[in-house]
Amino acid sequence: MPADATSTVEAVLHAAVASFGGSERPGQVQMAAAVARALRDGTHLLVQAGTGTGKSLGYLVPALLHHRPVVVATATLALQHQLVQRDLPALVAGAAAELGTAEVPYAVLKGRSNFACLHRVREGSPDDTGALIDVPSGSLGGEVVALRGWAEKQASDAGPGDRDAAPPHTDKAWAQVSVHARECLGAQRCPYATECFAERARDRAMQAQVVVTNHALLAIDAIDGVPMLPEHGAVVIDEAHELVSRVTQASTKELSGPQVERAARRVRAAGRSASSGDDDTAQAASNLGDAGDALREIVAELPSGRVDRMPESLADGLVAVREAARACLSALGRPSDREAGQGDAVRQQARADAEEVRVVAERMAGFSERDVLWVSERDRVRGGNDLRVAPLDVSLSLRDKLFGRTTVVLTSATLQLGGGFEPLAASVGLRGDERVDDAPATTADVAAAADTPLPEMSPDADSDLPWVDAVEPVRWRAIDVGSPFDYARQAIVYVARQLPPPGRDGLGSAQLDEITALVQAAGGRTLGLFSSRRGAQSAAEHVREQLPDLEVWCQGDAQLSELTRRFVDEERSCLFGTLSLWQGMDLPGPTCQLVIIDRIPFPRPDDPLMGARQRAVERHGGNGFMAVAATHAALLLAQGSGRLVRRGDDRGVVAVLDPRLVTARYGSFLAASLPPMWRTTDRELVLGSLRRLAAG
């Protein structure tokens, strides 16, 4: 799509904003210019764009005008839906004249399990024993019947077959009509490949200028080397403050006795599905089951927490599982083009499970300083322990396999931690000495987003981590385009300095009384963000008892979407919860005029991954607490306090009940990460302000 003048970007942005019935904001214009410049010269860009900036248009317009396809990766389904259902259609429709086309050159790309599988819908779903489930009885059966009917109609109507458009259902019901990538028969062998929803989505993505996906799929494509995305010239990562945690999550694997036993059952069932049975497969399955039982007993004897030195018994157990899984794969044989129908689905599922067990057991058995291995207690219902493994550091993988291969733009409302971009930049593999001019892009910088490759640079052998021989320097710049909100006039950050520091035993009477006083002054209208479920529950119980006229809901009382709806509908109400409320909640208006944060959200002291990362920094002479724990807390504080001001007429208070924010040495680093709200420790002033807001 041609874009050979500065005015093109400006004209498209202006038309797009007009189609939304809005007006351009200086930060949005500045962002679009900076993104266009980054796409043109191949320099990575970090853009902090505060709430209300309109950052999605700030990167979508340059992406549409780039000479090669651009991948946009988000962390949440909510933003993904916003982009593909609202922003991109309105942008293209409103700026058709400037774009030179009325077509919609974008597509959404999700994992295969997000689409209905016509083979599973029509042939049935094999269970753990290899039996094909037709229509289960009860409510689950009704959901499956509805999903199958919906999938067939989607196929006849050439619909997307996407789970988001499916009738209401549970995870168990969806599992009966979908497959994971490893369970898929493949386009060459599936009799329904020409109708396949996932393949059609992939074909659409191959033709699109902008491909919207998620962080996990980006990680699988870039980090794991599994081709998931079409060829592209640049990547835009929205909600970039979550990138490291999402990539870590995508690379975290677990292994348990029940998981190995399930794989053994499916291998055994695949052997029975052969025309005359398969003795070799049956024996291999039996050996895998025995190895899983032995591993279960070994792990049960280990204490929960990080495994710093591999016990010999655990190493032997993992090797036994790995070899038994490998034998199962050998007995099952390679997929054959002649295989078809129900038996093929059973064998493919068995192969997928056995391969997953083999890969994870091999990684755990050979774990090194690159990985963190730990024993995790399972929930009370299932009992027992799991083994989990996660990468110690994803920054070098991101640097090498993402930033080293394509131009990347990262954007979020919270990229500056402690007042600067360097902490977050370091977490994704960008070094401070590689940062170049971060002056705002000028009008002259906004031109055609041509494909300019990164310049050749010599490797730098001086590495922070012992397993890396050399890393390629990369250029990056950063820019803060601000926010249209006047935080200093719209909001107050109140730190309850008079309270005692929080202890390990949860909220004390002083904190509970402070919460009640604040909620009473605000007349409800309170979002409570707590570091633990126990803290949220005890606060909710106390406020209900002291202020019976107010509605107080706690996370867990109902589905989060339902609780959010109630909170919005009932102005004089409170919603208390934990981590899922800290990020992504959008509650503009008088519904939320008080945000309470019970304590600085440091990671738990017994968190095996955070603890290992902190120790790794300290081993190399750094400050592990500041680099890991304080940075983690700063990000969550910034996100949590950002729940208050969501539009230009919002007013209110963020109340932090942890005096360490103003008394500890690290407090200034954390405070510098917050939006620039007016700050005070004056309790009476804050209570009076809340009363006036409630009355007005």
Name of the CATH class of the largest domain? Alpha Beta
Strand content: 5-15%
CATH topology description of the largest domain: Rossmann fold
Oligomer category? single chain
Report what the structure shows.
- With 696 residues, the protein is of the alpha/beta class.
- It folds into 4 domains: 6-110 and 203-245 and 394-436, Rossmann fold; 116-195, no CATH class; 257-383; 487-695, Rossmann fold, CATH 3.40.50.
- The chain is 46% helix and 13% strand.
- It contains 27 helices and 20 strands.
- A 7-stranded parallel beta sheet has the order 3-6-2-7-12-1-13, sandwiched between helices.
- A hairpin with a 5-residue loop joins strand 4 (125-126) and strand 5.
- Helix 2 packs parallel to helix 3 (55-65), helix 3 crosses helix 4 and helix 23 crosses helix 24 (624-641).
- The chain is globular and about 80 Å long.
- The chain starts with 5 loop residues before the first helix and ends with a helix.
- Mean pLDDT is 86; it is low at 1-5, 337-342 and 439-471.
